[in-house]
């Protein structure tokens, strides 16, 4: 069995088509093991996601067309503003990509939820700032349904970059242009970006973001996200994380 056949076999085994009406089925994908920690609460759940699809589409066709569905563009973005954002000299901002599993469920497969909540604390302590919550960024732009398939591949040993590539996506397809336009409407002075990724800062600056540089956000490492964080360093240009053990 070649690599692509192996990938398809993994995904087909976890995909089910459920009748919805005369025109559509519901493609259900999962389970994905999701280790969750919220304060003192810890448990591992089985996670599924689903999507209405044309009744004529087979499971193979659903999987092969993932990168043509634009699944990440079904939600709206927002921004949380704190303090005198328009006039204050020193404002922190976080361009936070939505992470349904990390931000909402408290998944420990990544550090997104930690970064979101720590960014809020940093901004309040600073006295001024904003968090741009970017809803079309799920899974670095591939969408929640596609991210479920990527997680299944990660459970088979793929890293985050390899899994996205295996599904026909680029490593990172996120756009920040709209967020920068909104930022400009709220503030004309420079801002300081909360990020561990110098490449992200440079990309934002290329699109017109006025910055005083960036500040890193350490922490949120667990046994279940350590490989994910190391991949960020090795393949996505992040500042070296303080990987322990």
Mean pLDDT: 86
CATH topology of the domain at 70-236: Rossmann fold
Q: Please identify which CATH superfamily of the domain at 70-236 we are dealing with.
A: GTP cyclohydrolase II
What's the number of extended β-strand segments?
8
Strand order of the largest sheet: 4-6-5-7-8
What would you note in describing this structure?
With 245 residues, the protein is of the alpha/beta class. The chain has a domain at 70-236: GTP cyclohydrolase II (Rossmann fold, 3-Layer(aba) Sandwich). It has helices at residues 3-13, 59-64, 100-104, 112-126, 138-141, 144-154, 160-166, 177-186, 198-206, 226-236, and strands at 15-19, 24-38, 41-54, 78-82, 92-97, 129-134, 191-194, 211-215. The strands form two sheets. The chain has a five-stranded mixed beta sheet, sandwiched between helices. Helix 6 crosses helix 7. The chain is elongated and about 55 Å long. Residues 241-245 have low confidence and may be disordered.
């Amino acid at each position: 069995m070649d690599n692509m056949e192996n990938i398809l076999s993994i995904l087909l085994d976890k995909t089910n088509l459920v009748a919805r009406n005369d025109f559509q089925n519901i493609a259900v994908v999962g389970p994905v093991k999701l280790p969750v920690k919220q304060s003192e609460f810890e448990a591992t759940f089985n996670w599924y996601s689903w999507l209405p699809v044309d009744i004529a589409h087979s499971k193979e066709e659903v999987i092969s067309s993932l990168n043509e569905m634009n699944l990440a563009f079904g939600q709206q973005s927002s921004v949380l503003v704190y303090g005198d954002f328009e006039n204050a000299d020193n404002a922190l901002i976080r361009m936070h990509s939505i992470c349904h599993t990390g931000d909402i469920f408290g998944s420990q497969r990544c550090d997104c939820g930690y970064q979101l909540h720590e960014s809020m604390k940093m901004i309040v302590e600073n006295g001024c700032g904003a968090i741009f919550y970017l809803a079309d960024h799920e899974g670095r732009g591939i969408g929640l349904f596609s991210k479920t398939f990527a997680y299944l591949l990660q459970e088979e040993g793929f890293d985050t970059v390899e899994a996205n590539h295996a599904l026909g996506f680029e490593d990172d397809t996120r756009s920040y242009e709209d967020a920068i336009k909104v930022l400009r409407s709220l503030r004309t002075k420079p801002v300081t970006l909360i990020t561990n990724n110098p490449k992200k800062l440079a990309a934002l600056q290329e699109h017109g973001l006025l910055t005083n540089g960036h500040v890193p956000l350490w922490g949120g490492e667990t046994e279940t996200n350590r490989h994910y964080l190391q991949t960020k360093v090795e393949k996505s240009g992040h500042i070296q994380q303080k990987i322990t053990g």
